[in-house]
Design goal:
alpha+beta; GSTK; DSBA-like_thioredoxin_dom; Glutathione S-transferase kappa; glutathione peroxidase activity; EC 2.5.1.18; 226 residues; single chain; 10 helices
Length: 226
């Protein structure tokens, strides 16, 4: 990392559509702002439990608002979100533990592919209404992300290893140490201290903190691989 670049960490879970928006916007700004973006796959369920938070979707009026809000935000940020046919089942019954263990295995052993693997998993649940919990689903996502067959099989095996389970717990605890209560969580390390931003709608404030300019959600059309 260049000494002049500011470290910006993104804690996320692919079960969270707002995390997908935050992820894509930060990936686009990685080469616009003078930052070193570090992806930190973590487990949202662990953060919710550890912080004592409750899913906003369990409040009927809030769920109705969030559904509309997500559509507007996705359109504005040009992220192809189309909610699953049964969002409660996808988010709360099936969850994302196996998916995030797989992403953690990729981050540990093939970090250059973490971005694309994460994106393919988001596409499955939040664009194509597909499963992200079974080994077959994870394999398909890995294939679409460009993982060679032998490497993919090794990573699928590692995803259920104690090493990966402990790493995911550790990163999730790091998010909780930053007082996380949900995702996405953005941590900008400025002047030796972490500055915390929750959500995918605080980029103007992040830019102000970094001494950078906010140029909208798509600063350059070539900056995102969507």
């Amino acid at each position: 990392m260049s000494a002049s670049k500011i470290l910006v960490e993104l804690f996320y879970d692919v079960v969270s559509p707002y995390s997908w928006i935050g992820f894509e916007v930060l990936c686009r700004y990685r080469n616009v702002w003078d930052i070193d973006l570090k992806l930190r796959p973590a487990f949202l369920g662990g953060v919710m439990h550890g912080s004592g938070n409750k899913p906003p979707g369990l409040v009927p009026n809030k769920f109705l608002y969030m559904t509309k809000d997500l559509q507007r935000l996705a359109s504005y940020c040009k992220v192809p979100i189309q909610g699953p046919s049964n969002p409660f089942e996808a988010m709360f019954e099936k969850g994302s533990l196996s998916a995030m263990r797989f992403v953690t295995a990729v981050e540990l052993h093939s970090p250059e592919l973490t971005e694309q693997v994460s994106r393919e998993l988001w596409r499955r649940i939040w664009s194509k209404d597909q499963d992200i919990t079974t080994p077959e689903s994870l394999q398909e996502a890995g294939e679409k992300a460009g993982l060679p067959a032998d490497q993919l099989q090794r990573l699928l095996g590692l995803a259920i290893s104690q090493e990966v389970k402990e790493k995911l717990k550790l990163v999730t605890q790091e998010a909780l140490n930053h007082k996380a209560f949900g995702f996405p969580l953005i941590v900008a390390h400025v002047d030796g201290r972490p500055e915390i931003f929750f959500g995918s709608d605080r980029f103007e404030l992040l830019a102000h903190l970094l001494g950078e300019k906010w140029l909208g959600p798509v600063p350059q059309e070539t900056g995102s691989k969507l």
